[in-house]
From TrEMBL:
Belongs to the glycosyl hydrolase 47 family. It is an enzyme of class 3 (hydrolase). InterPro entries: 6hp_glycosidase-like_sf (IPR012341), EDEM1/2/3 (IPR044674), Glyco_hydro_47 (IPR001382), Seven-hairpin_glycosidases (IPR036026). Ca(2+) binds at residue 475. It comes from Myotis davidii. Keywords: Calcium, Endoplasmic reticulum, Glycoprotein, Glycosidase, Hydrolase, Metal-binding, Signal, Unfolded protein response. GO terms for cellular component: endoplasmic reticulum quality control compartment; membrane. This is alpha-1,2-Mannosidase. The active site is at 117 (proton donor), 258, 351 (proton donor), 372. Its main location: endoplasmic reticulum. It comes from the Eukaryota. Involved in the endoplasmic reticulum-associated degradation (ERAD) pathway that targets misfolded glycoproteins for degradation in an N-glycan-dependent manner. May initiate ERAD by promoting the first mannose trimming step of ERAD substrates, from Man9GlcNAc2 to Man8GlcNAc2. Seems to recognize and bind to exposed hydrophobic regions in target proteins.
């Protein structure tokens, strides 16, 4: 890979001083330990500034040292930063924040909220924190991970979004009022990503709660988008969710479309769903055929394939990381290096970059501290170990600290040409940018677990394995443990079979030699009280006749480490496509 061809391109306009941890004369990579501590310091400077100056508002305004609500008045930065706290090792603050959220979070408010943003930030953040809470030392209730206060909050937030999906097409509105549902005058035009970015959170929620409605609506939305693609296999940017007609017909991999493609891949991995992966691979062929030029991706007309915008958008920088998940490492690295040259030119990625001209697009010169290029570097470094990827991490730390650090946090860069700042620190800076930087420099973090360690957890449905690795990040970088989906997801009739096994287990534990059978007329089974007892609330309403018993193993999760699946997954799907 010709990494050293970057310097002759003449794009190294931002010259950063040498620093401890930089590559030496021998070309050695940046010191991960040094940058790990630098990233941690960045996080606490931003996080402490939010707590001191902006909480309970959604986000910090770092130039005026105050706060404002942006996406619905949820104390959003606190939710978005919660799992980052654990990844950085701060269990005490994680526990404190969980208590704060339990006492203060309220979704019965008269607020118009983005369906997309509420899902990825609030639902995703709460689900991730719920699944990580035991690791963080939170005292979990009986039945966890199939029950718990954070899970209940995630479910409540998601139910507030369900009215948006009540359209003739099944594709959701973009905005919903949390108290009254969809406003009568709400626009029916929604971006593609706002329709296709629910399967990760909603399928997880359905698996943990046993209510299929969440996964069902997410799948319908994905299917309708798939059915709406053009004859050449592309989707546009915005669609009318009432008529199914495309309003904006620009096709690409960036803003307005990006996380739809991301969730086809991540949903396929999370759910082991070959159909979702087959959809993405078909899209991938069309994207390569019509939008890729010299390892850049342009915007084209979705029906004709003609170029409409020869620009690179900073949001597109997630694409190399996504390519790595399907095993397409060579193409991923080539595209990543193109994007890295833009970073070196400006010390960040402008929102729009005109590829033929090699410069920013008017009124799109800013960099709101987005994570996408760092995200791709993290994925590719895990796949290749290439030190060039650590160099991007180093450059990101140095640039962000030099340009955007202010007394009260880190400010959005309004213009990368003159480094003017804007009075906003988006919550994704703590949820994504800092998290991916830290994980890039922390190879032994529990998130990178290779399956060598895990936790065995007893649930009302049997024993399951958690924490073995293979975490799936949602598009806001909230990690979901895929094993958790196997802990609670049971067909109704199978619950009785598991219940019978648990009765036998407890009978033996009390010294009985044989299982004492009971009938439904004697009432539902009650497990013994005390440590290890299980809640029977999930059995309410299930008084129908028990089916004939079949012997099934108590261990409900696959014994194979999930990271093994992840390593093989791309090749498996490619072979079957």
């Amino acid at each position: 890979m010709p990494f050293r061809l970057l310097a002759p391109l003449g794009l190294l306009c931002l010259l950063l001083p040498l620093h401890r941890g930089a590559p030496g004369p021998d070309g050695s990579a940046p010191d991960p330990a040094h940058y790990r501590e630098r990233v941690k310091a960045m996080f606490y400077h931003a996080y402490d500034s939010y707590l001191e100056n902006a909480f309970p508002y959604d986000e910090l305004r770092p130039l005026t040292c105050d706060g404002h609500d942006t996406w619905g008045s949820f104390s959003l930065t606190l939710i978005d930063a919660l799992d980052t706290l654990l990844i950085l090792g701060n269990v005490s603050e994680f526990q404190r924040v969980v208590e704060v959220l339990q006492d203060n979070l309220d979704f019965d408010i008269d607020v118009n909220a983005s369906v997309f943003e509420t899902n990825i930030r609030v639902v995703g953040g709460l689900l991730s924190a719920h699944l990580l809470s035991k690791k963080a030392g939170v005292e979990v209730e009986a039945g966890w991970p199939c029950a718990g206060p954070l899970l209940s909050m995630a479910e409540e937030a998601a139910r507030k979004l369900l009215p948006a999906f009540q359209t003739p097409t099944g594709m959701p509105y973009g905005t919903v009022n949390l108290l009254h549902g969809v406003n009568p005058g709400e626009t029916p035009v929604t971006c593609t990503a706002g329709i296709g970015t629910f399967i990760v959170e909603f399928a997880t929620l359905s698996s943990l709660t046993g209510d299929p409605v969440f996964e069902d609506v997410a799948r319908v939305a994905l299917t309708r988008l798939w059915e709406s693609r053009s004859d050449i296999g592309l989707v546009g940017n915005h669609i009318d969710v009432l008529t199914g007609k495309w309003v904006a017909q620009d096709a690409g991999i960036g803003a307005g479309v990006d996380s739809y493609f991301e969730y086809l891949v991540k949903g396929a991995i999370l759910l082991q769903d070959k159909k979702l992966m087959a959809m993405f691979l078909e899209y991938n062929k069309a994207i390569r055929n019509y939008t890729r030029f010299d390892d850049w991706y342009l915007w084209v007309q979705m029906y004709k394939g003609t170029v409409s915008m020869p620009v690179f958008q900073s949001l597109e920088a997630y694409w190399p990381g996504l390519q790595s998940l399907i095993g397409d490492i060579d193409n991923a690295m080539r595209t990543f290096l193109n994007y890295y040259t833009v970073w070196k030119q400006f010390g960040g990625l402008p929102e729009f970059y005109n590829i033929p001209q090699g410069y920013t697009v008017e009124k799109r010169e800013g960099y709101p501290l987005r994570p996408e290029l760092i995200e791709s570097a993290m994925y590719l470094y895990r796949a290749t170990g290439d030190p060039t990827l650590l160099e991007l991490g180093r450059d990101a730390v140095e640039s962000i600290e030099k340009i955007s650090k202010v007394e009260c946090g880190f400010a959005t860069i309004k213009d990368l040409r003159d480094h003017k700042l804007d009075n906003r620190m988006e919550s994704f800076f703590l949820a994504e940018t800092v998290k991916y930087l830290y994980l890039l420099f922390d190879p032994t973090n529990f998130i990178h677990n290779n399956g060598s360690t895990f936790d065995a957890v007893i649930t009302p449905y049997g024993e399951c394995i958690l924490g073995a690795g293979g975490y799936i990040f949602n598009t806001e970088a909230h990690p979901i443990d895929p094993a958790a989906l196997h802990c609670c997801r049971r067909l109704k009739e199978e619950q009785w079979e598991v219940e019978g096994l648990m009765k036998e287990f407890y009978s033996l534990k009390r010294g009985r030699s044989r299982f004492q059978k009971t009938t439904m007329s004697s009432g539902p089974w009650k497990p013994p009280a005390g440590p290890g007892a299980f809640s029977d609330e999930n059995h309410d309403g299930m008084r129908e006749k028990k089916p004939t018993k079949r012997r099934i193993p108590l261990l409900s999760c696959p014994s194979q480490p999930f990271t093994s699946k992840l390593a093989l997954l791309g090749q498996v799907f490619l072979d079957s496509s």
